[in-house]
Write a structure and sequence with these properties.
Length: about 375
């Protein structure tokens, strides 16, 4: 079944903006590379600013603050907050155990014990991302010898790290800020567009030759879903800002996983259907539903990008398509057509129409339920 794209001008614009349209060929300096260059510039600025402040207030080893700023600066505010939290916790735990075990002497034994205890404490507390940082802090405190009290150096190190974190957070938030929620919104829109293209490629293999780009589209959808997992984690740590509610983004992410599973089920149901004839009796209702599902992915992606889920699809209703297909199935049952075709063909056609109806209902629910969630979240914020 060949599904011809029915993109409106807005659909085409959205596909190009999100780099999904195959005709879009970005130049060498594409969006991702520009983002990386901006991150490099912001990180350099944060490190230099931190070192300047450290010298201004008389910190002896202010370069540790610059190192911290480089470590915790991430591509969006939410990820920077997460990295800063992990860095600060690791430093506090490492500094505490380093100071305590340094009282036992300068030998290798106290150092080994301090590293083991500090990293084990992080692991037992479920702070795996802070574990290595705690070990690094212990190593700096116990292997780099300075004069004075065993508590002076840990205190200085914590203050230097705290300075680096504060500067990195300020730069990430105020200088060309990139919000994880905004990036997740566009990335979810991209994922839904990609799933629409994957659906079209899968359906091309129904009673026909499988699409050549099926493997690539499947990999692109999986990569997009993995990126959205990281962005959602970062978005949870961001302060509330902008119009994108975390509840709505989380719901769309969950629907994305369900839709991906449904696409896999459809892919399994169309295998071996290149010579099936029974499914022809489900036309044109089956093809109409498939075409509108493909358009539905584009519509939901547009709703995500605009963050407006109130608009019904203008030219189709998936509920009507499902009803028409069910009526067609009901007409075929008393006709006795099943006696003329192999049972495998009949089962394959029935499985496909069930999976298509499930996919259509999921797709519609992703818009309707997100609209309700966003409206509820908006009302709560106004109160």
């Amino acid at each position: 079944m060949k599904i011809a794209a029915r993109k409106t001008w807005s659909n085409q614009t959205l596909s190009a903006r999100l780099h999904v349209d195959g005709t879009h060929q970005p130049g060498w300096l594409n969006q991702e590379k520009r983002r990386l260059l901006l991150l490099a510039a912001k990180t350099t600025f944060a490190a230099a600013l931190c070192y300047w402040i450290a010298n201004l207030i008389g910190m002896k080893d202010g370069y540790w603050g610059s190192i911290t700023a480089i470590i915790v600066m991430q591509s969006n505010v939410g990820s920077t907050i997460t990295a800063s939290r992990d860095r600060l916790i690791g430093t506090l735990i490492g500094a505490s155990f380093g100071a305590v075990f340094s009282l036992l002497g300068d030998g290798l034994g106290p150092y080994i014990l301090a590293v083991i205890v500090a990293m084990s404490a992080c692991s037992l507390l479920g702070l795996k991302n802070s574990s290595r940082l705690a070990g690094v802090t212990v190593s700096i405190l116990m292997l780099v010898h300075h004069g004075g009290s065993s508590w002076i150096l840990p205190m200085h190190r914590v203050l230097e790290v705290l300075l680096g974190i504060l500067v990195a957070l300020a730069v990430s938030t105020l200088v060309f800020p990139s919000r994880a929620r905004t990036r997740l919104r566009d990335s979810l829109a991209q994922q839904y567009l990609l799933m629409g293209e994957l659906f079209a490629a899968v359906m091309q293999g129904f009673r026909g030759v499988p699409a050549n780009n099926l493997d690539k589209l499947r990999a692109d959808v999986a990569a997009s879903a993995a990126a959205n997992t990281q962005l959602l984690s970062a978005a949870r740590n961001e302060p509330t800002s902008g119009r994108e509610s975390l509840e709505g983004l989380s719901l769309l992410y969950q629907f994305g996983a369900s839709l991906e599973d449904a696409l896999h089920a459809i892919e399994l149901s169309v295998r071996g259907s290149d010579r099936d004839l029974f499914a022809a009796h489900l036309e044109p209702e089956l093809e109409k539903l498939a075409l509108d599902i493909h358009s539905g992915f584009q519509h939901v992606a547009g709703c995500i990008h605009k963050w407006d889920f109130r608009q019904e699809p203008p030219k189709f209703r998936l509920e009507d398509d499902i009803a028409h297909l069910e009526m067609r199935m009901a007409e075929l049952r008393p006709a006795g057509l099943g006696l003329e075709f192999p049972q495998t063909e009949i089962l394959r056609a029935y499985a496909l129409q069930l999976h298509l109806k499930h996919l259509a209902r999921l797709l519609r629910a992703s818009r309707v339920e997100t609209n309700q969630t966003v409206a509820t979240a908006g009302a709560g914020n106004r109160e």
